[in-house]
Design brief:
It is globular, with a radius of gyration of 14 Å. The strands form 2 sheets. It has a 5-stranded antiparallel β-sheet with strand order 3-2-6-1-7. It has a two-stranded antiparallel sheet with strand order 4-5. The protein contains 8 helices and 7 strands. It has 175 residues and is α+β, with helices and mostly antiparallel strands. It has one domain. InterPro entries: DUF1269_membrane (IPR009200).
Length: 175
């Protein structure tokens, strides 16, 4: 994956069911060969501000990455503090710190309060950037959409750290 250019695609929803429907449409689009998704999740944020991973699937996609483990990387790239709140392990924390610093230096990032405000949902996907436009269009029920280039090295380092403590991270994401 080191040679790939990756993009983070986010769709924001006032209705959790619409987010779930678009997520299922993303999976169907991938299954039919329309594009390749590296990882994707549906997030919901309660009125109290608590974020939950609602859907991340349970089968392998892309290059054999488990959607569950991929959920951790997607969360870390979308908003490092969200993963830090659930992740265990010094390796994951160290990588998240570097990614957060890198995002700040590059003015990269998606405003969590804008795209996952309290009481809303979001579909967040990591894709090869050649598929970003198709994936963004597939989020047809979203009120807002955004696509941002991400550093594939960040993804690889984060995925490696999560893989090293995958059972703990996946358990936290699923709880």
């Amino acid at each position: 994956m080191g040679t790939k250019n990756l993009a983070l695609v986010v769709g924001s929803y006032d209705d959790e069911n619409a987010a779930s429907e678009d997520y299922q449409a993303l999976r169907s689009g991938q299954d039919s060969g329309g594009y390749e998704i590296v990882g994707a999740v549906v997030l919901t944020r309660g009125k109290d501000g608590k974020v939950q991973v609602k859907e991340h699937g349970d089968k392998s996609v892309g290059h054999g990455a488990a959607w569950g483990a991929g959920a951790g990387a997607v969360l870390g790239l979308f908003a490092p503090p969200l993963l830090a709140a659930t992740a265990v392990g010094a390796g994951v924390g160290a990588i998240l710190g570097k990614i957060k610093k890198s995002h700040e230096e590059k003015q990269f990032g998606v405003d969590v309060d804008e795209y996952l405000a309290p009481g809303t949902s979001a579909v967040v996907a990591v894709v090869d950037d050649k598929w970003a436009d198709r994936v963004e269009k597939a989020l047809e029920r979203a009120e807002k959409r955004i696509s941002k280039a991400i550093d594939s090295d960040d993804y690889e380092r984060l995925q490696k750290a999560i893989d090293e403590s995958a059972d703990d991270v996946i358990e936290q994401i699923n709880s």
